[in-house]
Design a protein that fits this description.
The chain has helices at residues 46-49, 142-148, 163-168, 191-199, 238-249, 259-268, 307-316, 318-330; strands spanning 27-32, 37-42, 54-59, 62-63, 67-72, 78-88, 91-95, 107-110, 118-125, 130-134, 177-179, 203-209, 232-236, 253-256, 277-281, 297-300, 341-344. It is of the alpha+beta class. The radius of gyration is 21 Å and the shape is globular.
Amino acid sequence: MRTEDYNFEVPEHLVAQHPAEHRSDSRMLVYYRDSKKIEDRMFRELPELLNDKYHLVFNNSRVISSRIAVTKESTGHKGELLILKLEDANHAIALTDKSKKYKTGEKIVLPAEEGKHLVCVVEEEIDSLKKRLYCEEPVFTVEYLNKYGTIPLPPYIKKDVDEDDKIRYQTIYSKPYGSAAAPTAGLHFDEEVFSQLKKKGVNHTYVTLHVGLGTFQPIYSDTIEGHQIHQEEYEITKDEECELNDAIAAGKILLPVGTTSLRTIESNFENGKFNAGQFATRLYITPGYKLKAAGALFTNFHTPKSSLAVLVSAITGYDEFKRIYEHAVKQEYRFFSYGDCMLIL
C-alpha cells in the first residue's frame, strides 16, 4: 500500500499539549469490529465494557530522562543528546543534533558539577545521527540522567518540560528504566480504574518492552512495505509467562494496553504458548497480518504515516481505520501522546 494512504490531517488544536487534569478523564472511542459500531465514551467507563473474559497486558517500562544539553568541545557549539540506550555505565547509544556533525573521535562535554570537566567521546558512528558514546567516568546511569537530563517529550508537544511531565509522562506502574518514549496508552490508567477492573474480575500481566524513538518515526518510503521497523528489546519473566499461558489456557481474550504490549505478545507467542526470557523484536504489523495472541487492543490516536497507524489499520481494516480517524477528528478527540484513547473490541 502507498504510504500516502496513511496521511491524514489532524487540526493543530487537537494535538494535546497537556494531559487531562486526571489520568482517567480522557475520552475513549470504542470500536466494535463485528458490528463496525463506534461509541463515544469516557475512559473511566472502561471497566463497564470489560468482564472476566478479558486479560489485560501492560508494558511496564519506565522512561529515561534522556534529553541532555551538551557542548561540542572542538567548537564550543551548544547541542543536545538524546540517550536511546544505556549499554553500561561507560557506554551509551544516543541521537545527536541534525544540525551538527559528530564524527568518530569527537569529544562532547557533558553537564557536571561545578568545577568538573566531564567529557565523552564518539566511539562509533552507527549512522548519521545515531552514535555509540564512551566516557571514562561511569556516568551513563539512570541516576546521572535523572539529575542532568529531562523527559523526552515528543516534538509535537511544543512546550518546555515541567515538573508535572516528570509524573504524567510515566505510567503509574512503570518500573524498569529503559524507554526513550512512554508507552502512552497506559498513561490513562489510575488506581481507581485498576480497582474497578479488579472488582469485575479482569486480571492483568506486566511485560517489559523498552520503547525506542523508532516507534514514532514516520514512514519515509513510498510504500508501507518498504519501511523497516525499528528493533526493540523486551523481556517476559517466568511468572509473567505462567500468567499469560494460564490466561490462554482459560480461554481469556488478551487485551494489550498499547501497541508495544501488542508487539511484545505477538512476537513471543509461538506454538500456542509464551516463553520467558530476554528478546528483541522487529515485528511490523501491516494489513493482512493475523493476530496470534491478542484478541483486542487499547491504544491512543497515532501520528499520520506511522507504523502505529498501519498497525491499527491491520486490526480494523483500512477503510474502517479511515472512518474511525475521521470520526475522531470530527468529534474533536485529543490526539497523540497526551491525548485521548481508543478501545478496539
